[in-house]
Design brief:
The chain has about 110 residues and is α+β, with helices and mostly antiparallel strands. It contains five helices and five strands, in the order αββααββααβ. The chain has one domain (about 20-105). A hairpin with a 2-residue loop joins strand 1 and strand 2. InterPro entries: Phage_TAC_12.
Length: about 110
């Protein structure tokens, strides 16, 4: 393998958000998920040893009116946080979030 192939096959993460459908409390809504590079995830890990998943949600999830602060992400309903986290992980694993696929949180 060579660098050109790595780049052409998506091995270098672009920062274009991908859509994700979230289900929570009998509602479905769309958010955008930022994919993070290996270095960006490493930087989040170094930012502190606690609440990594909360930092990941705050950093990656984009709502129609902006991004959650760390404090707001920390206070999320657990079911909603789980649904958002699952969408973030799908996007980070390179699965372009299929707008038809949903991630649900139970009430």
């Amino acid at each position: 393998m060579n660098i050109y192939t790595i780049k052409s096959q998506g091995g270098i993460v672009n920062n274009e958000p991908v859509p994700a459908q979230i289900e929570w409390k009998e509602q479905t809504f769309e958010v955008q998920i930022k994919r993070l590079s290996y270095g960006a995830i490493e930087t989040l890990h170094k930012a502190g040893s606690q609440a990594f998943n909360t930092r990941l949600i705050a950093e990656c999830v984009l709502f129609s009116d902006g991004q959650l602060s760390f404090d707001d992400a920390f206070k999320l309903d657990p079911a909603l946080a789980n649904a958002l986290y699952a969408a973030v992980m799908r996007a980070q694993e390179g699965d372009a979030a299929d707008p038809k696929a949903t991630t649900s949180g139970t009430n």
